[in-house]
Design brief:
With 249 residues, the protein is α/β, with parallel strands linked by helices. The protein has 11 helices and 7 strands.
Protein backbone atom coordinates (compact mmCIF):
# COMPACT_ATOMS: atom_id res chain seq x y z
CA UNK A 1 0.00 0.00 0.00
CA UNK A 2 1.31 3.45 -0.90
CA UNK A 3 1.35 6.01 1.87
CA UNK A 4 1.36 9.79 2.26
CA UNK A 5 3.59 10.80 5.17
CA UNK A 6 2.59 14.28 6.37
CA UNK A 7 5.32 15.81 8.55
CA UNK A 8 3.26 18.17 10.67
CA UNK A 9 3.29 19.96 14.00
CA UNK A 10 1.43 23.19 13.17
CA UNK A 11 3.73 25.39 15.26
CA UNK A 12 6.91 26.83 13.83
CA UNK A 13 10.18 25.73 15.40
CA UNK A 14 9.06 22.34 16.73
CA UNK A 15 11.48 20.39 14.51
CA UNK A 16 9.39 19.48 11.46
CA UNK A 17 12.02 20.14 8.80
CA UNK A 18 14.77 18.34 10.73
CA UNK A 19 12.56 15.31 11.23
CA UNK A 20 11.59 15.37 7.55
CA UNK A 21 15.26 15.42 6.55
CA UNK A 22 15.99 12.47 8.84
CA UNK A 23 13.09 10.52 7.35
CA UNK A 24 14.33 11.26 3.83
CA UNK A 25 17.81 10.08 4.78
CA UNK A 26 16.32 6.95 6.37
CA UNK A 27 14.69 6.12 3.04
CA UNK A 28 17.87 6.83 1.08
CA UNK A 29 20.05 4.65 3.29
CA UNK A 30 17.51 1.82 3.25
CA UNK A 31 17.02 2.15 -0.52
CA UNK A 32 13.30 2.83 -0.12
CA UNK A 33 11.69 4.39 -3.17
CA UNK A 34 9.92 7.60 -2.27
CA UNK A 35 8.86 11.02 -3.50
CA UNK A 36 9.51 14.20 -1.57
CA UNK A 37 7.30 17.27 -1.34
CA UNK A 38 8.32 20.54 0.29
CA UNK A 39 5.09 22.44 0.91
CA UNK A 40 6.78 25.13 2.97
CA UNK A 41 7.03 27.55 0.04
CA UNK A 42 8.45 30.47 2.02
CA UNK A 43 11.19 28.52 3.81
CA UNK A 44 12.18 25.37 1.94
CA UNK A 45 14.50 23.90 4.56
CA UNK A 46 14.13 20.43 3.11
CA UNK A 47 14.39 21.19 -0.59
CA UNK A 48 17.65 23.07 -0.19
CA UNK A 49 19.23 19.81 0.98
CA UNK A 50 17.33 17.44 -1.33
CA UNK A 51 16.84 19.21 -4.61
CA UNK A 52 14.63 16.48 -6.09
CA UNK A 53 11.83 17.68 -3.82
CA UNK A 54 8.70 18.83 -5.61
CA UNK A 55 6.79 21.99 -4.66
CA UNK A 56 3.21 21.88 -3.42
CA UNK A 57 1.10 24.59 -1.87
CA UNK A 58 -1.97 24.62 0.35
CA UNK A 59 -3.94 27.76 -0.39
CA UNK A 60 -7.41 29.27 -0.19
CA UNK A 61 -6.87 31.16 -3.45
CA UNK A 62 -9.24 30.03 -6.19
CA UNK A 63 -6.45 29.69 -8.72
CA UNK A 64 -4.35 27.56 -6.35
CA UNK A 65 -6.93 25.13 -5.06
CA UNK A 66 -5.30 22.22 -6.84
CA UNK A 67 -1.67 23.04 -6.06
CA UNK A 68 -1.48 20.29 -3.44
CA UNK A 69 -2.99 17.56 -5.65
CA UNK A 70 0.46 16.50 -6.82
CA UNK A 71 0.82 14.83 -3.42
CA UNK A 72 -1.88 12.28 -4.13
CA UNK A 73 -0.85 11.74 -7.74
CA UNK A 74 2.67 10.86 -6.65
CA UNK A 75 1.34 8.64 -3.86
CA UNK A 76 -0.35 6.41 -6.41
CA UNK A 77 3.14 5.39 -7.54
CA UNK A 78 5.22 5.42 -4.34
CA UNK A 79 5.35 6.62 -0.76
CA UNK A 80 5.43 10.40 -0.41
CA UNK A 81 7.06 12.48 2.33
CA UNK A 82 5.45 15.92 2.72
CA UNK A 83 7.15 18.65 4.72
CA UNK A 84 4.32 20.95 5.85
CA UNK A 85 4.68 24.61 6.84
CA UNK A 86 3.51 25.98 10.17
CA UNK A 87 -0.10 27.09 10.78
CA UNK A 88 -1.45 25.10 7.84
CA UNK A 89 -4.05 22.88 9.58
CA UNK A 90 -7.15 24.72 8.22
CA UNK A 91 -5.78 24.63 4.66
CA UNK A 92 -4.76 20.97 4.83
CA UNK A 93 -8.09 20.09 6.36
CA UNK A 94 -9.86 21.98 3.58
CA UNK A 95 -7.88 19.99 0.98
CA UNK A 96 -8.62 16.70 2.74
CA UNK A 97 -12.32 17.45 3.23
CA UNK A 98 -13.30 19.06 -0.07
CA UNK A 99 -11.39 16.52 -2.09
CA UNK A 100 -12.62 13.65 0.10
CA UNK A 101 -9.00 12.59 0.25
CA UNK A 102 -9.43 9.77 2.74
CA UNK A 103 -12.22 8.17 0.71
CA UNK A 104 -10.32 8.55 -2.56
CA UNK A 105 -7.11 7.30 -0.96
CA UNK A 106 -8.86 4.17 0.27
CA UNK A 107 -10.28 3.54 -3.20
CA UNK A 108 -6.83 3.69 -4.79
CA UNK A 109 -4.96 1.78 -2.11
CA UNK A 110 -3.28 4.78 -0.50
CA UNK A 111 -3.32 5.62 3.18
CA UNK A 112 -2.38 8.79 5.02
CA UNK A 113 -0.18 9.14 8.07
CA UNK A 114 0.48 12.32 10.02
CA UNK A 115 3.76 12.45 11.93
CA UNK A 116 2.96 15.13 14.49
CA UNK A 117 6.15 16.72 15.84
CA UNK A 118 5.59 18.13 19.33
CA UNK A 119 7.82 20.34 21.46
CA UNK A 120 5.99 19.58 24.72
CA UNK A 121 4.39 22.99 25.04
CA UNK A 122 0.70 23.40 25.86
CA UNK A 123 -0.17 24.89 22.47
CA UNK A 124 1.68 22.13 20.62
CA UNK A 125 -0.10 19.37 22.54
CA UNK A 126 -3.50 21.05 22.09
CA UNK A 127 -2.90 21.18 18.32
CA UNK A 128 -2.16 17.45 18.38
CA UNK A 129 -5.43 16.85 20.22
CA UNK A 130 -7.27 18.86 17.58
CA UNK A 131 -5.82 16.74 14.80
CA UNK A 132 -6.73 13.49 16.58
CA UNK A 133 -10.26 14.69 17.33
CA UNK A 134 -10.73 15.81 13.73
CA UNK A 135 -9.56 12.64 11.99
CA UNK A 136 -10.07 10.07 14.77
CA UNK A 137 -9.30 6.58 13.43
CA UNK A 138 -9.59 7.64 9.79
CA UNK A 139 -5.96 8.79 9.60
CA UNK A 140 -2.84 7.23 11.07
CA UNK A 141 -1.02 9.42 13.58
CA UNK A 142 2.47 9.17 15.01
CA UNK A 143 2.99 11.49 17.95
CA UNK A 144 6.67 12.47 17.85
CA UNK A 145 8.03 13.70 21.17
CA UNK A 146 10.94 15.95 20.30
CA UNK A 147 13.56 15.35 22.99
CA UNK A 148 15.57 18.22 21.57
CA UNK A 149 12.87 20.55 22.87
CA UNK A 150 11.72 18.76 26.03
CA UNK A 151 13.55 15.81 27.58
CA UNK A 152 11.02 15.02 30.32
CA UNK A 153 7.55 14.01 29.14
CA UNK A 154 6.33 12.48 32.39
CA UNK A 155 3.86 15.34 32.81
CA UNK A 156 1.97 14.16 29.74
CA UNK A 157 1.67 10.55 30.89
CA UNK A 158 -0.44 11.71 33.83
CA UNK A 159 -2.83 13.74 31.68
CA UNK A 160 -6.19 11.99 31.30
CA UNK A 161 -6.96 13.32 27.82
CA UNK A 162 -3.67 12.02 26.45
CA UNK A 163 -4.21 8.59 28.00
CA UNK A 164 -7.79 8.43 26.72
CA UNK A 165 -6.62 9.11 23.16
CA UNK A 166 -3.91 6.45 23.39
CA UNK A 167 -6.40 3.91 24.70
CA UNK A 168 -9.14 4.80 22.24
CA UNK A 169 -7.00 4.85 19.10
CA UNK A 170 -4.55 2.02 19.71
CA UNK A 171 -4.79 0.89 16.09
CA UNK A 172 -4.10 4.28 14.52
CA UNK A 173 -1.91 6.14 17.03
CA UNK A 174 1.72 5.45 17.86
CA UNK A 175 4.18 7.39 20.01
CA UNK A 176 7.90 7.70 19.35
CA UNK A 177 10.78 9.88 20.53
CA UNK A 178 12.92 12.10 18.31
CA UNK A 179 16.37 12.33 19.92
CA UNK A 180 18.41 15.44 20.54
CA UNK A 181 20.81 16.75 17.92
CA UNK A 182 23.11 19.23 19.63
CA UNK A 183 22.54 22.77 18.29
CA UNK A 184 26.23 23.24 17.50
CA UNK A 185 26.34 20.01 15.50
CA UNK A 186 23.22 20.95 13.60
CA UNK A 187 24.61 24.41 12.92
CA UNK A 188 27.74 22.88 11.43
CA UNK A 189 25.67 20.61 9.16
CA UNK A 190 23.21 23.32 8.10
CA UNK A 191 25.71 26.11 7.60
CA UNK A 192 27.74 23.89 5.28
CA UNK A 193 24.56 22.65 3.56
CA UNK A 194 25.62 19.05 4.15
CA UNK A 195 23.26 16.15 3.75
CA UNK A 196 23.58 13.69 6.62
CA UNK A 197 25.58 11.31 4.42
CA UNK A 198 27.83 13.93 2.85
CA UNK A 199 31.41 12.53 2.64
CA UNK A 200 32.78 15.93 3.64
CA UNK A 201 31.36 15.44 7.13
CA UNK A 202 34.08 12.89 7.84
CA UNK A 203 36.73 15.30 6.57
CA UNK A 204 35.58 18.56 8.15
CA UNK A 205 33.42 17.82 11.18
CA UNK A 206 35.13 17.37 14.58
CA UNK A 207 35.37 13.70 15.57
CA UNK A 208 33.17 13.91 18.66
CA UNK A 209 30.54 15.81 16.68
CA UNK A 210 30.62 13.04 14.09
CA UNK A 211 30.01 10.45 16.81
CA UNK A 212 27.08 12.40 18.24
CA UNK A 213 25.60 12.77 14.76
CA UNK A 214 25.96 9.05 14.14
CA UNK A 215 24.21 8.25 17.42
CA UNK A 216 21.45 10.74 16.65
CA UNK A 217 20.80 9.17 13.25
CA UNK A 218 20.92 5.59 14.53
CA UNK A 219 18.47 6.36 17.33
CA UNK A 220 16.20 8.31 14.97
CA UNK A 221 16.17 5.49 12.42
CA UNK A 222 15.22 3.01 15.14
CA UNK A 223 12.28 5.15 16.15
CA UNK A 224 11.07 5.42 12.55
CA UNK A 225 11.59 1.72 11.88
CA UNK A 226 9.71 0.51 14.94
CA UNK A 227 6.45 2.01 13.67
CA UNK A 228 6.67 -0.34 10.65
CA UNK A 229 5.16 2.42 8.54
CA UNK A 230 8.05 2.04 6.10
CA UNK A 231 8.07 -1.77 6.15
CA UNK A 232 6.79 -3.23 2.84
CA UNK A 233 3.59 -5.23 3.06
CA UNK A 234 3.20 -4.73 6.80
CA UNK A 235 0.58 -2.77 8.65
CA UNK A 236 1.74 -0.61 11.56
CA UNK A 237 1.82 -2.21 14.97
CA UNK A 238 -1.01 -1.30 17.25
CA UNK A 239 0.65 0.02 20.38
CA UNK A 240 3.44 2.32 21.45
CA UNK A 241 6.79 0.59 21.24
CA UNK A 242 8.21 0.92 24.75
CA UNK A 243 11.55 -0.61 23.81
CA UNK A 244 12.21 1.92 21.08
CA UNK A 245 10.90 4.85 23.08
CA UNK A 246 13.22 4.12 25.98
CA UNK A 247 16.22 3.42 23.79
CA UNK A 248 17.04 7.09 23.32
CA UNK A 249 16.68 8.08 26.93
Amino acid sequence: MARIHLIDGEKGGVGKSLFARVMVQYCIENKIEHALIDADITNQDVKRFYDYAVDAEFSEALNKGNKADIIFELAREKAVIVNLPANVFPLVNNWVTKGRLLDVADKYGVDVCKWFICDGGFESIELFYQSMEKYKDKMLHVFVRNLGKTDDWSFLESESKYQELKDKYKKTLQVIDFPLLYPGDRYFIDSNKFKFNDPQIEEKMPIMSQQRLMTFLEDSYLQIAVTELWTPNKQPKKAEKEKAVTSTK
